[in-house]
Each structure stands twice: as C-alpha cells, then as structure tokens.
Specification:
The protein is an all-alpha fold. It is 84% helix and 0% strand. α2 runs antiparallel to α3 (47-69). The chain crosses the membrane at residues 6-24, 31-50.
Length: 70
C-alpha cells in the first residue's frame, strides 16, 4: 500500500463527515479522517499535517465524549 492511498481515504472520510446532519456521525467520520491524515502525515514526514490532524482528532474525541455524557 502506498501512503498516498491513505491520504485519499482520509479525504473521503472528511468529505463524508461534512455531509452528515447528525452531529455524532459527523464527529465519528471526521475523527476517522483525522486519524488517517495524522498517520499519513507521519508516514510521509509532513509534520504540520500530522500535528494538525492529531489535534483535530483530540478535539473530535473530546466532543464525542461530551455528547455521550449528555
């Protein structure tokens, strides 16, 4: 597998997340895309991509926990 495919998969997840009307589904799809992009960034040594998406994954996780508690 080339790492470029992981970048495309991450992009698909992010685009799908933006089409969700349900906030929980949006967060899950976005979280998956962010994790894929963070791994992709690490693998191609694009540290701004890895760091930004790692932080966004944490933000999505925080909001999912917050939504689960309500």
């Amino acid at each position: 597998m080339t790492w470029e495919y992981l970048g495309y998969i991450a992009s698909v997840f992010l685009v799908i997340s933006l089409m969700m009307s349900n906030v929980v589904k949006l967060r899950w799809f976005n979280l998956t895309g962010c994790i894929c992009f963070a791994v992709y960034g690490v693998m191609i040594e694009a540290w701004p991509v890895a760091l930004t998406n790692g932080l966004l994954a944490l933000v999505n996780s925080y909001h999912l926990v917050k939504l689960h508690r309500v």
